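Assess the record.
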Amino acid sequence: MPFYRQVGKIPRKRHTVFRKADGSLHREQVMGTKGFSGAQSILYHYHMPTEMVRAEVERSIRMDFEEETALRHRHFRTDQHEQTGDAVAGREFVLGNEDLLLGVVNPTEKMDYYYRNSDGDELLFVHRGTGQLETIFGNLSYGPGDYLVIPVGTIYRVLPDPGEAKFLVIETNSWITTPKRYRNEFGQLLEHSPFCERDIYGPVEVHPRTERGEFEVKTKSRGMIHSHIMAHHPLDVVGWDGYLYPWKFNIGDFEPITGRVHMPPPIHQTFEGNNFVVCSFVPRLYDYHPDAIPAPYAHSNVDSDEVLYYVEGNFMSRKGISEGSITLHPSGIPHGPHPGKAEASIGKKETLELAVMVDTFRPLRVVKKACTWEDPDYMRSWLEQPMDHAGKLSP
């Protein structure tokens, strides 16, 4: 996490006596990463965080991926997924590999349980809808354009407001942080970073729940969802401090970097994790060299797969996509602007596109169920010469 935060009541020194009003001790929990060498926070509970009544395996969550197919460009229209549910059980994944899973969810129902991902951090991008992210560290409100970063092991639930809602979901097996090249040796975001600490929001207060009873926390770990029944309310934290906590950043606060000629995708980078990066394409001025071609040049992803999630606007290098589209341009073959898009971009002053890009440095596989949303003609959308009814190029 970029900076230190303190919320609620904590003792003056860590690992020292901190008593409740009745004289009994608050229970201290160090929650950290990388074996006490990474980011961490210290939480103070009203009850013991280890109190558990029952533990059961609920279900397997191992993905059913399609068999290896011909290498090609892919396009999935995720707005065809109309099923609603809560923010966890309703997730439908499209792509995945050893490092992450990427999918969508239409979270219109409130979670009647709490959840934690014990495998890695989660990133939720709010495409549509508003609501509350209720966590052990405190609450965060959310709205369209918000990235919600939820650290590994965080107990939370999503409480959406009534109405239409959609998230892009990225579940990782590692961490999510700001790009290293935008931070100095002290962890502070540098002057040339496209965003700064003022744009990052974390919880500002806790609302400890001290009641006893049976409360369910569903835990993702080791390819399974485990049901843990606690003997007290899981959100019993009276205070905490540290560098590990959920936070939000709105894509509208990303300040684009521009140049005289077309700038490469790393200028859009917003987050990084183990073997992947996340980028934000936002409204921006085009290149200002008098002979500039603002549309991107064709390029080969020689060591990464490129995924784009289209949020809104007219994406300047693409045809045939819509809000909620996900495209996969795999490593090993080139991709670039659709026919006519480079020519059409010349002389234009700005673009109003909004999209989230994920580049992975290990190949992605397609989840079988997502194939029902696939546009089978996308691979051929770069053809400048039409095909006849026999599937051959017309003379």
About this structure: The longest helix spans residues 341-345. The radius of gyration is 23 Å.
